[in-house]
Design goal:
The complex is a heterodimer of chains A (165) and B (69). Chain A is 37% helix and 25% strand. Chain A contains five helices and seven strands, in the order ααβββαααββββ. The radius of gyration of chain A is 16 Å and the shape is globular. In chain B, β1, α2 and β2 form a beta-alpha-beta unit. Chain B starts with 5 loop residues before the first helix and ends with a helix. Classes of the chains: A alpha+beta (165), B alpha+beta (69).
């Protein structure tokens, strides 16, 4: 581990009951500012397993270790991309990858920026995007998980922060 | 950013003779105070934290363009 990161990791931050609300706010802010879109809650949807063939992931390391994922259908991802780019026509697959990765990165950054103990002591990885839905994510660390399901134009967008102990 | 982060990019840019004096505004999710101070100390002219609005971009970039004119 890098010395700087090691120092940041020494005092790990534990999640608390406010984090779900903070994540909700962080996601909604990113969509509002970057896409001029208001996400709405999808009651009950958060209990089911996330589905969708487009997943963006950003790793977090330091005072909090974990992975933030955003998952939706490719149709939703294309719509998000078009809106982000201000495009009314079809979007290129490479643009979809970039846009979803960027949204995930911004959500992770916005979330940690709202938690004083994390802001300066948690680093983000370069995002990764998975295309396809035939996979299962299994964390080898037995940590807590924070999940949200919000509606983008009626379609579900799952946000999940899997934290390592 | 793959390969290097914005701070490293700025460091490398400052070693290129023809690029010296190019105003750089960092646009990043890393908005912690220490990162802002680090970026400004190695020559960044501004720092915008994502997500950002078009007005924030204008506010930071316009004065830099006016200085160059």
């Amino acid at each position: 581990m890098k010395p700087m990161l090691d120092a940041r990791a020494r005092n790990g931050v534990r999640p608390d009951s406010t984090w779900t609300g903070i994540m909700d706010c962080a996601v909604k802010e990113v969509f509002q500012i970057m896409l001029q879109t208001d996400l709405t809650s999808m009651p009950g949807s958060g209990d089911g397993a996330p589905v969708g063939d487009t997943t963006a992931m950003v790793g977090m390391a330091g005072a909090l270790c974990g992975v933030l994922t955003i998952r939706c259908t490719s149709h939703t991802a294309e719509s998000i991309t078009a809106r982000m780019l201000g495009s009314s026509g079809p979007v290129k697959p490479s643009d979809v990858t970039d846009a979803i990765a960027e949204i995930c990165n911004m959500v992770a950054g916005n979330f940690k920026g709202k938690i004083t103990a994390l802001a300066d002591r948690c680093m983000l990885s370069v995002p990764t995007v998975i295309r396809g839905d035939d996979y299962e994510m299994v964390s080898i660390a037995d940590g807590e998980q924070l999940s949200l399901c919000l509606a983008y134009g009626g379609s579900p967008v799952w946000i999940c922060l899997a934290m390592h102990n | 950013m793959p390969a290097m982060d914005g701070i490293e990019f700025l460091r490398q840019l400052s070693t290129i003779e023809t690029a010296k004096g190019t105003p750089v505004v960092m646009v990043t999710t890393e908005g912690s105070e220490s990162r802002v101070v680090e970026a400004l100390s190695i020559g960044a002219k501004g720092y915008i934290r994502k997500p950002f609005t078009p007005d924030q971009i204008k506010e930071r970039v316009t004065p830099l363009l006016e200085v160059l004119r």
